[in-house]
Amino acid sequence: MNLLLAEVAQATQRLAAAGVPSPRFDAEELAAFVHGVKRGELHHVKDADFDARYWEAVARREAREPLQHITGRAFFRYLELQVGPGVFVPRPETESVVDWAIHAVRAMDVVEP
């Protein structure tokens, strides 16, 4: 097992012990964020590139800081939004309500002015 996979596995255990609902996803997302790659590109990260920034990010998530505040981004529908402390993180339920509202408006028989 390479260092990155071992570190992600260790971070997954720490986040699970802290009660984080999606520990593996969060551990991988933090690793990708720290290295400036997408989660699917983590296998390209060289072991030597792994550093303390990852463990700082893991500690913040372990303290239950929202993942999106740590990475500075949140996804909502087709958008990538910048977020940080003091900004509400869009929830999946909100996306569902917005989808419902868009479909409802499109289904209305409205004559445009």
Outline:
This protein is mainly alpha-helical and 113 residues long. It has helices at residues 3-17, 23-35, 52-62, 67-71, 92-107; strands spanning 73-76, 79-82. It is 53% helix and 7% strand.
What does this structure look like?
- The chain has helices at 3-17, 23-35, 52-62, 67-71, 92-107; strands at residues 73-76, 79-82.
- It is mainly alpha-helical.
- The protein folds into two domains: 3-71, Orthogonal Bundle (Helicase, Ruva Protein, domain 3); 74-113, no CATH class.
- Strands 1-2 form a two-stranded antiparallel ribbon.
- A hairpin with a 2-residue loop joins strand 1 and strand 2 (79-82).
- Helix 1 crosses helix 2 (23-35) and helix 2 packs antiparallel against helix 3.
What are the key terms here?
2 domains, single chain, Helicase, Ruva Protein, domain 3, two-stranded antiparallel ribbon, mainly alpha
